[in-house]
Amino acid sequence: MTDPSARPSATPADSTRPLDGKVALVTGATRGIGFATAVELARAGAHVVAVGRTEGGLEELDDAIKAAGSSSTLVPLNLKDGDGIDRLGGALFERYQRLDVYVANAGVLGPLSPLGHVLPKDWDDVVASNLTAQWRCIRSFDPLLRLSPHGRAVIVGSGAAHKAKAYWGPYAATKAALEVMGRTWAAEAMKSALRVNMFNPGPTRTRMRAKAFPGEDPDTLPTAEAAAQAILPLCLPALECTGRLYDLPQGKWLDYQMPA
User: Residues 96, 102, 171, 256: which is the catalytic one?
Assistant: First the structure.
């Protein structure tokens, strides 16, 4: 480790840096929505703990965060390394004694093919990356988020979780399970200061989208920066709702039935 009813309300008018003094962790931070969200959090004043697999991407992010007037801690880590996640949780406690914001963005597309054609090793990789790794992160970061007076977690999901589209089985199944896991976490944290919400960015101009739809014109899609701007309000202390899904394409919150 080196040194949005309607759309959620935006950054309060009386403060352009509402996350000053806060520590925010973003996974999958080296490109796409993760990269853009890390920069957006930095602009809001947070110190960003950026987790990603490529050191070059992390170094590029570090430059962007510095240009935004903030600082970062770079963590080159494959989230399939569960012990590495545990070590990161311990290091965060030792250094900061808490975590204020957690954006769970990392994920993989996996194979787009009939379920019966998916190789076991590819299935295992998607489950490990999109589900098991996310549980390991919750396990390590939940205690840290509860130590914050305003812990905020955002689970970045996908519209695929609400569809049963042919050939998207591994990705859709793991994203649906991730959403249920996030809702479960929110229910368990209901009586604490921690707020956990899900976020669906919809079609976005990212490398993963290009891989899934190679013939699509990326210029017709919203940018990762637009998604990041919608994620930021879910990370702020002023947000009080929990266990909800903000759907960016519809521009509104979608409610679940939460336990009493």
Answer: 171
